[in-house]
Amino acid sequence: DATPMLPCGEDLGMVPDMVPALMREMGILSLEIERMPKTMGAWRADPATAAYLSVVSPATHDMAPIRLWWQEERGAAERYWAEAMGREGQAPAEATPEICDAIIAAHLRSPAMLAVVQLQDLLATVDSARRDDIVTERINQPADRHHRWRYRCHLDVADLPVRDWSRR
């Protein structure tokens, strides 16, 4: 009763069986990460099938952003290209602005209450806003104690609201 905030649960990984039902009962949103499916044997969590009481996202801060993932995980990128995007032939070597836009758009169309997208993934939809070195787009790499919370936006954040975003 103290606040109108919306609670969101971080229910990734191994959680007790009663947690999903308890979260729904309490109105706590579930976290649905496309590259971390909760269904055994699934290769992705399709944002189109997310429950309303959830938050969808392509990745977490502990995962590679879209462009880096596309480059590092070629097998997954090829499968995504063919199955999630319905495209034929070999996937492009680079996640183009159009690919990044399509991935983000799928999350925005989701029935989930919220879609959360990392800033660097949003910037990747515009050629002029992309970083040259995509490795620097990674926020956190938990396995590397020297690479924690390293991401710094290469653009002046104060300019983002007034920037001309119509140019791809």
Helix content: 25-40%
State the distance separating the first and last CA atoms.
46 Å
SSE string: HEEHHHEH
What percentage of the residues does DSSP assign to strands (E)?
5-15%
Summarize the biggest pleated sheet. 3 strands, parallel
Count of individual domains: 1
Q: Can you count the helices?
A: 5
Shape: globular
Query: Structural class, from helix and strand content?
Result: mainly alpha
The average pLDDT value, as a whole number, equals: 93
Task: Please tally the β strands and state the result.
Answer: 3
Q: Cα-atom Rg, whole angstroms?
A: 17 Å
The low-pLDDT segments are none
Q: Strand order, main sheet: write it out.
A: 1-2-3
Task: Describe the structure in your own words.
- This protein is mainly alpha-helical and 168 residues long.
- It has one domain (19-162).
- It has five helices and three strands; from the N terminus they run H-E-E-H-H-H-E-H.
- The chain has a three-stranded parallel β-sheet.
- The longest helix is centred in the middle third of the chain and has 12 residues, at 97-108.
- It is globular, with a radius of gyration of 17 Å.
- The mean pLDDT is 93.
Provide the fold topology:
Layout: H1 19-26, E1 30-33, E2 54-57, H2 66-72, H3 74-84, H4 97-108, E3 114-115, H5 119-123
Parallel strand pairs: 1-2, 2-3
Task: Supply database-style keywords.
168 residues; three-stranded parallel sheet; mainly alpha; 5 helices; globular
